[in-house]
Amino acid sequence: MQYNYYFDICAIFILTTIAVISLSRRQVPAYRQRSYSMLLLTFLITSFSERIETQMQMNPINADWFILTQKALQAVYYLAHLGSAFCYLVYIMSVLDMYLDFKSLKSFLQTFLAYTIGAVMVVINFFYPVLYYYTPDSQYHRGPFIWVYYVLAFYYICYGLLLTLKYNNLMRMKTRIVVASYVLFSLVGIVIQYFYPLILMENFCNSISATLVFITLQNPGEMVDEHLNILNRKAFLESLDLRIRRKSAFSTVFVTIDNIRALSSEIGYAQSQEVLKQIAKYLKRVGITEYKLQSYAYRYSEFIFALTVHGTDGTSARDLLEGVAKRLQESWSSSGMAIRIEGHCFMISYPENYITTSELINKIDIIMEDIAESAGTIVEIDEHKFHQKKKARDFDLLARTNLDAKSAIIKFQPILSKKYKINYSADVVCFFKDENGNEVDVREQIPDVKITQSLLDTDEFVYRRACRALSFWNDGDKNGKYRAVVGLSQGEISRTDFLRRIKKILREEKAEASWISLKLTETTLTTMNNVAERNLKLLGDINCQIIVDKFGSGYGDLDRILSLPVMQVNIDISVLRSARASEKMKLVAQGIVNLFHDVSIFVGASGISGQEDKEMAEELGCDFLMGDFMGEPMKDSSYVKFIDAYFEEA
Fold this sequence. Notes:
- It contains 24 helices and 19 strands.
- By secondary structure, the chain is an alpha/beta fold.
- The chain folds into three domains: 6-217, Rhopdopsin 7-helix transmembrane proteins (Up-down Bundle); 221-381, Reverse transcriptase/Diguanylate cyclase domain (Alpha-Beta Plaits, 2-Layer Sandwich); 392-649, EAL domain (TIM Barrel, Alpha-Beta Barrel).
- A hairpin with a 2-residue loop joins strand 8 (332-334) and strand 9.
- Helix 13 crosses helix 14 (384-405) and helix 14 packs across helix 15 (453-474).
- It is elongated, with a radius of gyration of 37 Å.
- The model has no long low-confidence stretch (mean pLDDT 82).
C-alpha cells in the first residue's frame, strides 16, 4: 500500500521547529504554557508514530515481531491522537484559568472518562480487533468500533467549544479565533483522512493548529520574574481577574520577607538573592509535593510572594498556610551558612474576603503597613486591628467621595463647662454620607500621623464651614460670644503655607482667628516636625489658641505643650476610667489636672459617654466636659436654638 506521507513529514518538521524554539525559550512555570507543551507533545508522538507505522506498511517484513510492533505503534498513535483532543480541552481550560480537580468524581466524568474509555479500547484491541487490525501482509484495516474513538475525540472538541462560547467575553479576540480555527483544521483533517485514508493529512492540519496556538502565547519575559524564575505580578493579576470574572472560589496565601534588606547589608546582595531563589523554588513545589494541592507561586512585589490554591477546600488551604509558616521559621542554607529570615504569611479567600481585584490590593496594602510588628508568623486578617485599619482607609475614600460630591455635613456638639454647665463653645464635627445616604460618624477613624490629600481637604473644609457659621452667628462682632473647636491633622499643620491658608479662609469668611481654637491630639503634637511647630507658635500672633486632645492616650511631651500657645488640655477617657478603677490611677489623674492648673492651662475631659465618666471628671476638677453624653452633635441652626433656649431658661 502506497501512502501519501509528505504531509506527515511537513507536520514533523513544523512541530519539531516549534519544539526547538520552545526549548530555547525560558521555561515558564505557567498553567497555559504547560498545557500547550502537553498538546505539542501529543502532536509530535502522533506524527512520529504514524510516520513510522506507515513506513512499515509500505515495506513489510515477514516476521512475528513485525505485526506486533505495528500494533504497538498504532496503539501509541490512537492514545496520542485522543490525547491531543484531551490536551486541546485542557489548553482551553488553562486560557480560562480553570483547573482540573483530580480528586473530584465530577471532574473525572467530565474530562477523564472519555480518555479512559479510549485507553481501555486500545488495550482490548490487542486481543480483539475493535478499533483496527492487520492482515498477514502487514496492511492496516479499520475495526467495527472505530467510530467510538471519533465520538470520544468529538466530545472533547465540543466540550472545548462550549467552554469557549460560555466564557467568550473572558478570551481575547485572537485566542477565540485560534480556538475556532483549531476545530476547523482538525475537522478538515479528520474528514479528508477518513474518506481518503491514503492521504495522511490529519497530522498536518493539527500542526497548523499548534502553530497558531504557539503564536498566541505571550512572551515568557512578560510573565516571569527573570531573577527568581517565578511568575510575576502581571501574571498574578491576569489570573486573578479571570477567576473573579468566572466567580470561581479559591484562596491565596501571601508570604512576606520582612528583613531581606537587612540581610543584604549583612551577607551581601547576591547571597540575599540566593535566599529568595530558594524561597521561590520552595513555594513553587510545596503545594503539589507536600499537600497534593494545585497551586501556582507568583512574585507579587519585591518581597511578597503569592501562592494561589484552587478549589473550595478551605481546610487544605489552611494546612498549606500553616506549613509555609512553619518553614519560614526554619533556616535557609546558602554558601554553607544557615540564614534565618523574618517573614509572615496570611491567607485571603475569594469571595469571602473580597469581591474585586482593587479590593484585594487595598486589603494587602492595609495588612502590609505594619505586618513586621505582628508577633506570630501567621497574620489573621479578620482581627479587630485589621478592621480598624480598614476603617481608616475607608475614611479616606469616603472623605474624597463626599468632598467631591459636596455632601459632607458639619455639626456642632455642645461643651459642658464648670461655670455655666453649657457655654457658647461647640466642638465641630464632620459627618460623611455612605452609599445609602446614611450619615457616618468618622471621628474615631481619623489617623493621628498618616497624611492623605483627602484628610487635608477635610481639615480645610471643616475650618471654613466653622468660620462661616461663626461669622453669621456673631454678626461681625469681634468679641462675639459664639466659639468653636476644630480638630486638625498633622499633615495640615505641617504645610509650609499653613498660616497663609488659615488667614485666607478667615478673610474670605469674615471671621476672627480668636473665635476658633485648633484641636490637636497628643500624638500629633508630639510627633510633628519643625515646620508644624513653627506654625503653631505663630498662631499666637493672630490670637488663635491650641487645645491638646486625648492627653494620656499617646506619646506625651510636656516641654512641647508648655512651649506652644496651648490654652486647654483634654485628658483621654481611658485616664478617667483608669481613675475609677484604681485609687493609684486616680491620684495620677488628679496630679495631671493639678499640674496643668498650676501653669494656667484649662483641663477638659473628652469622650464622656455616661454619668460615671461625668462624675469622675467633675471630681478631678476638669473645667470642660465633651462627649455625646452632654449632647449629640447637631446642625448649625439647631445648635443655636438649643444654646439660646438653654440660657434663656436659665
